[in-house]
Amino acid sequence: MEFMDLHIQEEELLREIEEVFTQTLKTARYVGGGFVEDFEEEFALWVGVNCSVSVGSGTQALKYCLWALGIGEGDEVITTPLTFVATAEAIVSLGARPVFVDVNPETFQIDEGKIEESVTDKTKAILPVHLFGAPAEMGKIMDIAERYNLRVVEDAAQAHGALYRGRKVGSIGHCGAFSFYPTKNLSAMGEAGAVTTNSREIARRVRLIKNHGQDRPYHSLFPGENGRMDAIQAGILLKKLKYIDRWNLRRREIAEIYRREFSGLVQVQKVGEDSVSAYHLFVILHPGRDKLQRELASWDIPTRVYYPIPLHLQKAFSYLGYRKGDFPVAERISSSLLALPIGPWMKDEEVSRVVEGLKKAFKK
């Protein structure tokens, strides 16, 4: 058993993926073209937004969302310290300052009850992360944003198909950022990302940013970047988009088994009553995390540790002045979080093996 077996999915879709390569070779449209245009249209429809703009990576999607909203030098963006480094990198890359807020001890999402106390006259945006595929508390976050006239960028890099009050994440804030890194629920065969929004003006700005600021060839309105998605990646994503709902359903089936079997045994990430997780990852908390991981590995049950050092304690952000103990909940979760195998490729017997292995470990 592998923690994430990417081979199975690609082998099942091999013929369709080969068609993408063949058609791209025939047309020689390697950047832009039909695959990119079709994917942007279909992904927007699937997320439930007016516009989807393809970009080169999830990190670029985050950066371009903030850039298009006018976030820049000296601005502050409120976000969580319990996430991948790209969330804060996108803020810093524009000259803005990440302002961290501790997380909810049950959902592991940014604690919406602590956001307001971090708002200053420099605050321009809130960047919630739908961590591990579960939606953040977007209703309350949007209320705070409206009250203080702030923009909201959803980091949906791990949450393709997650629902909050019946709406897909990435359609609730002013814009959303998706990653299609090979391990994601909807994955490319390389780097790729997308920005989603209901604002055609935001979409227009992102299209300019990702193409050197050009509104037409060799006419740059401002210095932008090269952030375009390759046609082959767009074609592969277009093929896979047909299957994502089925794959997510399987993830949820496995998660329900885990929740039922582990009830009262170990703490698992709580999903809000108004939410449906995409279960990019299924995570548990245990104070003896490292020992538990070694024990499960001895029985050939693969696990992974995510975000063992929260962002406020990373050397890269030491200049922000945060110290150990500033965000105790995030620090406790980082030291005890372990991800179990979950994915549409998992067989029933593999799921049972994980359940039995964890139960056996707790009996010792």
Verbal overview:
The chain has helices at 6-12, 14-27, 34-47, 58-68, 86-92, 138-148, 200-209, 231-241, 244-262, 289-298, 328-336, 348-363; strands spanning 51-55, 76-79, 97-100, 123-127, 151-155, 163-164, 167-168, 175-179, 193-197, 214-216, 219-220, 267-268, 275-276, 282-285, 337-340. It has 364 residues and is an alpha/beta fold. It folds into two domains: 6-102 and 110-241, Type I PLP-dependent aspartate aminotransferase-like (Major domain) (Aspartate Aminotransferase, domain 2, 3-Layer(aba) Sandwich); 245-363, Aspartate Aminotransferase, domain 1. The protein has a seven-stranded mixed sheet with strand order 1-9-8-5-4-2-3, with helices on both faces. A three-stranded antiparallel sheet has the order 7-6-13, with no helix packed on it. A three-stranded antiparallel sheet has the order 12-14-15. The model has no long low-confidence stretch (mean pLDDT 96).
Number of helices: 12
Full CATH superfamily name of the largest domain: Type I PLP-dependent aspartate aminotransferase-like (Major domain)
Q: Oligomeric state of the chains?
A: single chain
Beta-strand percent range: 5-15%
Our measurement of the CA-to-CA distance between the termini, rounded to an integer number of angstroms, reads 23 Å
Structural class: alpha/beta
Regions with pLDDT < 50 over 5+ consecutive residues?
Answer: none
Largest sheet: 7 strands, mixed
The gyration radius over C-alpha positions equals 20 Å
Would you tell me which CATH topology of the largest domain applies? Aspartate Aminotransferase, domain 2
What is the name of the CATH architecture of the largest domain? 3-Layer(aba) Sandwich
Mass-distribution shape: globular
